[in-house]
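Q: My collaborator sent me two sequences in one message, no labels, and asked for predicted structures for both. Can we handle them in order? The first one she listed is below.
A: Yes, handling them in the order given. First sequence, followed by its structure tokens:
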Amino acid sequence: MDSLITAAARALAAGDPLGALNRIALRDDAPALALRGIAMAQLGDLARAKTLVRSAARAFGPKEAMARARCIVAEAEIALVSRDLGWPAKALDAARVTLEEHGDKVNAAHARYLEVRRLLLIGRLDEAERKLAELDPAPLPPALRAAHELVVAGIAMRRLRTKTARAALARAERAARHAAIPALAAEIESASLVLNTPAARLIARGKARPLLLEEVEALLASKALVVDACRHVVRDARTVISLARRPVLFALARALGEAWPKDVSRGTLVARAFRAKHADESHRARLRVEVGRLRRMLRTLAGVSATSQGFALVPHRAREVVVLARAVEEEHAAVLAFLADGESWSSSALALALGASQRTVQRALDQLAAAGKAQSYGRGRARRWMTPPVPGFTTTLLLPAPLPSG
């Protein structure tokens, strides 16, 4: 490798893409194309970066398997940053194996981290944790150690383990200082903000207040009966009952939880559960049926008692009933939660992350665009969507709730 290529590679490793381009901007050989692609990715021109890296992979000869594998890893990283989550995981895994066989442990580990970060983005936490456990960050350079800790923190936040997340972010910050890469330090700072901004709202006895992520963790470990509107479950510290596939029952449970210890009139319950303006006899009959189903679902946690006006929730063990609601509640909040990370998303990537059909996601995006809450650029397969983050709120608890299929 010649001196200019070596100097450009060192500049990129130090987070200096302009310094790298100054050395190789006019060169079209395979190593220069690869480094130019990485430099353009660092500068934010992801489309150009993808083209350059692919050109580099084709330019490397058949005997340069390791160089081609590195290009595949670079392309996967560009895809991850551009939220193109449909890239072939098998190709990345094959590249990782090639790098391991050639002794490039650092880039092999980087490939694994990209895979784990993709799994984290699409909500496959168990698989992400399992693959992360296969990696030992100790022998890695500071930048990859910081990346490791960022993934640890991300999983911990989604699992509501705030102490683990804070410890991981502290380790990531120390590693980033050693790496001396400003973009990495900024990413860690942004992740740290999640722990210090409201993540949800607590609704109890008719009043609401914001909760930090660690307060949510403490609430779920308390003796309270929690109607969790972030994940559509009813729970206490020992038992979790999912109503995610029973929207009518959850609407009833939430209405009863918000009113506790008071009861809720039948007319209000009909309006909340069935979205009917006026309760006729058919609505009342259906309400009796649905309340009976709710009693059976919640029998280990609480009862639902009839009153002269309507119904009331009666917990068996808990001394208090509260509702845990999203920090921001509006239509298509799950789509907004992903868009609020500041990156540009394709509709197909959003559909994959949300576990919904692409048509459902596209309808949501069109409605958000009409309301001025999302914007797109590009056309066809290159179309991307984004929106500014909601100021003062983190989106961690918005992410798990799936869109209705359509």
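Q: And the one she listed second?
A: Here it is, processed independently of the first:
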Amino acid sequence: MYRIITDSACDLKVELIQKYKIEMIPIYIYNEDKEYRDKVSIMPEKMYSMMDEGAFFKTAQIPPKIFEDSFRNHLSKGDKCLYIGFSSGISSTFNSSVVARENVLKDYPKGEIIVFDSRLTCGMLGLAVLEAAKMLDANRGIEEIIDMLEHYRDHGEHIFTVDNIEYLFKGGRVSRTSAIIGGMLNIKPILEIRDGKLEILEKTRGRKKALNRMSDIIKERNHNICEQTVAVGHSNDMKSKDLLIEKITRETECQDYIIEYMGGAIAAHTGPGILAVFFLNKLYNE
């Protein structure tokens, strides 16, 4: 039996993780010299609250030893492992899983450990992991599950906006000059994951225009969004989150959402006030 493993960049609700027996390994987060484990020793709500008070966070990859412990635990019970990982274009965590796999298979040469670089994050990673868990629960073969994951990797859309451009400067996404001018002009950038990396897609002025443009991009990139589950990630701006969902529902007739706080894996680099929508630009098996 395959056991599905992911990391805390996957923004799935706790009840879904528990229902499908998904193992979620926390990413390491640092505030000055204090270490946290994402969604274990620090929850997103607390992290955003600290950010509002001026705190900055950094993330670190999950050490190979953590993956080794997980893989060994499952293989020792006769199970197989499928790790669906955070994009290697954003984090080195996936590389840790590769190292761990090689080390563990030396002791379990007949074991099976699949490590899959999803090139996804947050809600889009969550949607892929959830679909894999559902397929596994329905006794679908591992080849079909990998085929599905490859489709999600190739057709997953991540559309973000952030409220404070200063965090993009801290993360090296914009220059100091751009951050200063952007703050003065109330620039609210729209970002996406492109080839597994976080990139600035467009720049808008004001939160309302950013939300309107996000809705337009969603319509431009998918004609059948009403036929799929859409993930919405947010921080502490509930009003904007509700406005965006209302707009998407009205304009696309989408009714099926997974709504969850954005975890620390991305939030550390984008700051509070982040809002994101995740969907497929082409349905699987369409």
